[in-house]
Request: fold
Amino acid sequence: MANANVESGAPGISRWWRVVGGMSMNLALGTLYAWSIFVAPLEKEFGWKRADTSTVFGIAVVVFALSFIVAGRLQDKFGPFKISLIGGILVSLGFFLCSYTHSLTYLYVCFGVIGGLGNGFGYSTPIPVMAKWFPDKRGLAVGLAVAGYGGGSAIFGPLANLKLIPAYGVHTTFQILGGIFLVMTVFGAFLLKNPPAGYKPAGWAPAPASKSAATTYEFSPGEVLRTPTFYFMWVAYALGSLAGLMVISQLVPFAKSMKIPGEALQTLTIFVGAVGNASGRILSGWMSDAIGRLNVLRLMIAVSMIAMPVLYLVGGNVTALYVVVFVVYWCYGTQLSVNAATASDFWGTKNAGINYGMLFTAWGFAGYFGAKIGGSMYDKYHNYQMAFYTAGVLAAVALLCELAAKRPAVPEGLAVKKVPAAA
Reply:
């Protein structure tokens, strides 16, 4: 057996480089979360309403989630490199074409459809790759890889809002970001490769008694859809992440509506949120390795249920706003890393791309309706109070569903159907 950290047949290549590849890919893709920085310049230039610009984000999220299923199946079949490369090219192209925006329909296509497709293809690969390389530290490895998605807006959001847009305008900023993202995603794609069949880290053996133990049975997509756990987790994922996505899509406009003074302080909310998002993905993933995936999900959804209405109540105080934004984003980031690790633990890694892709459609639902709730309620009430209170109620429903979820049983009579974990 090769060294635990070295890929068989490729001496000197650490499995942790796969994590670096996933982070590079997701840092670029994660600028989707910085959409709110483009809202004000575009509304000012074209006279669009908040609900209109929120729809751009909503379309991108739905296309992202739906294309993730297709991309997940393709990467299960053809491997991660080609699929991630397609994703990187598409998301970069989408940003570049946005520089020629002249209508909402054009923006819907470029940012929403092309950018959404790029996200779906690019994001579909790091999670299964990490799940196969790190059966011993699955929650942590997946969390690190997807932390890049949460952290991308921390880097490129402030860069665009405070430097690029004031200096070059929103249209040229789209071009600059598109070029940067192309380099980052191509680099990441070259590092994303599956381990050899049957790979296990040296000295590691599964621990069946562990709360995060992986199944020895590889569920097909059809078998996944026949488990009640899938539906409880889907609803919990959708409603639990809706709160975070609603805040993400409206964060800078929300800070302005609460009279937070100065562009820099308003933009800093993006950075604080992104740090919370990335922290939740990494540390909650690590926690889930120790105390169990469902336990961590339940805890963070419960915290989110309280934090959402509190965020509105303290929104006018800069310090309190930053603290609660950090908490909301932490809870949201947890959903992305821990649900991904849970899917591989519960249903296996052989079909991890499509199986998690089906669960990930919940995130698409959340993103579309989260953006719509935030934008539409602001247009109706001229504040975000009802939107945030509604999100708190939905988080409570998510908690009930997460409490009802449990590890799925192997289909009766089929327990002998086993596949090597890294196949």
Q: What stands out?
A: The two ends are 16 Å apart (CA to CA). Residues 315 and 321 are 5 Å apart (CA to CA). The domain at 18-193+219-404 is CATH 1.20.1250.20 (Growth Hormone; Chain: A;). Residues 1-12, 415-423 have pLDDT under 50 and may be disordered.
